[in-house]
UniProtKB/TrEMBL annotation:
<dbReference type="GO" id="GO:0005524">
    <property type="term" value="F:ATP binding"/>
</dbReference>
<feature type="domain" description="ABC transporter">
    <location>
        <begin position="29"/>
        <end position="268"/>
    </location>
</feature>
<dbReference type="GO" id="GO:0016887">
    <property type="term" value="F:ATP hydrolysis activity"/>
</dbReference>
<feature type="domain" description="ABC transporter">
    <location>
        <begin position="272"/>
        <end position="499"/>
    </location>
</feature>
<dbReference type="InterPro" id="IPR050107">
    <property type="entry name" value="ABC_carbohydrate_import_ATPase"/>
</dbReference>
<keyword id="KW-0813">Transport</keyword>
<dbReference type="InterPro" id="IPR017871">
    <property type="entry name" value="ABC_transporter-like_CS"/>
</dbReference>
<dbReference type="InterPro" id="IPR003439">
    <property type="entry name" value="ABC_transporter-like_ATP-bd"/>
</dbReference>
<dbReference type="InterPro" id="IPR003593">
    <property type="entry name" value="AAA+_ATPase"/>
</dbReference>
<keyword id="KW-0677">Repeat</keyword>
<dbReference type="Pfam" id="PF00005">
    <property type="entry name" value="ABC_tran"/>
</dbReference>
<keyword id="KW-0067">ATP-binding</keyword>
<keyword id="KW-0547">Nucleotide-binding</keyword>
<dbReference type="InterPro" id="IPR027417">
    <property type="entry name" value="P-loop_NTPase"/>
</dbReference>
<protein>
    <submittedName>
        <fullName>Ribose transport system ATP-binding protein</fullName>
    </submittedName>
</protein>
Amino acid sequence: MPTTITQTPTDASAGSATEAAALGAATTIAARGVTKRYGSTRALTGVDLHVERGEILGLVGHNGAGKSTLMRILAGREQPDDGAVVARGTTSGRSWDAAAAAAAGVRMVYQELALCPDLTVAENAYLSDRRGGSPFGWSGRAERRIGEVLDTVFPGHGVAVVRRVGELTLAQRQMVEIARALCTERLGLLILDEPTESLGVDAADQLYAHLHRLTADGVSVLLISHRMAEIIAHSDRVAVMRDGAVAGVFAEADERSLLQAMGGDVHAPAAVEAEADARSAGEVVAAIRGDGIPFEVRAGEIVGLAGLAGQGQERMLGRLWAAGAFTRGVSAPRRRAYVPGDRQTSGILPLWSVAQNLTIAALRGISTAGVVDGRAKRALAARWIDALSIRGAAATPITALSGGNQQKVLVARAFATDAALVLLDDPFRGVDVATKSELYTLMKSEAAAGRAIVWYSTENAEMAHCDRVYVLRAGRIVSELAGDSNTEERIIADSFEEGTVR
Ligand SMILES: Nc1ncnc2c1ncn2[C@@H]1O[C@H](COP(=O)(O)OP(=O)(O)OP(=O)(O)O)[C@@H](O)[C@H]1O
């Protein structure tokens, strides 16, 4: 049986010397009675949570439960409306802001990468760590420092520190963001918001190995993730958030207890369940031919693209998306939809509402003589907000949604169209477990209705939902797996070794 340690509410007055002294000897940081509102949304309500020295504290919860908000407050980036943050070593009477958090060795790696794309890796590292020394030769020092951390944490990373960040893959950018945080001197608490969502399995393993080395040296880690297996395997304790509050803290977590505490209140339209398995492949909808194993996807099929991150899967999706009538070697239908991997730079339209973002690709289907039918547009948005349990009203600005809910809007945008081919670039990054399982069912239902779906995922386990899977290595398809051969083990083996067609 997992042990549930209910946090005891404590004095919530602002960070005073008495409070700091009241921290337990083994405590690095504590949130006390923290409450945060955004307009009428209560993001956090009286949250009490502490992180111990040298532990990995896992933090789970459905999309919109308040995890990122709490992290931003712990990192001093936002101020609570009520309650306080107390950290070891803080000066008495000092308010908890970004500077105080930095002085206490608190460092956060954000879900949305905060790197400047036009600067090099080393320049980005310098921006967040302008440590001493002469003004001359700063770039060489920054290159050496970030290069050493990358080599230590992610051996074989393939990142040239003099390259512009905009030229890196999403996985590489995530590695740089993590390495940049690890350059911090006197690191006390590292906060990681879904750090492995864009990393391949190999890099994720490297990261966890490093986190365990850090905690052995007394550093604390606060780890947010929707990947239950990772959280359970690597955390010393797991805290569950639900609707802006801590629903429980588990010293020995198992998946069932965590899911129960999270309360998975998501649902799919009834029709989806019934149609889910009634699929059969139709005619070829899209294909890529060249040397090596050809790619094709048929109507009614879900085809997976697997392999280590950055092996050409995104390029393949890009070729299918960009294909024109005269593109050599690639054929694709005219009606196609694309869920991009990097929602910040090529996905969401940040000045628009949820409904505008969701329906933008489907306007042709709800227009007459070029005039959009407003009522149909509202109905379409409402239908998908309900189907995907998007936590945010149609008129809400998209940027006010939590990361996972923004991602759901992008998935809904693609399926709200009449596209014959839907291209998905790691679409469920940051989406919570309960919603993911509803989305798998939705995809099967959409395929059963005749769509062709091409799906790249960094989570090999997800490929079990595909009819066929192509494994890519160094830009080429190295194997095609279906039926009994479509297993996680085979995908991993083919990702590293010479593969064959089966
Ligand atoms: N800047 C903001 N303006 C308005 N509402 C916000 C803002 N940031 C967060 N919220 C709201 O606060 C609530 C908590 O969001 P938060 O991002 O903390 O959730 P989360 O648990 O991190 O979700 P996810 O797993 O999707 O990242 C959500 O209802 C969200 O819409």
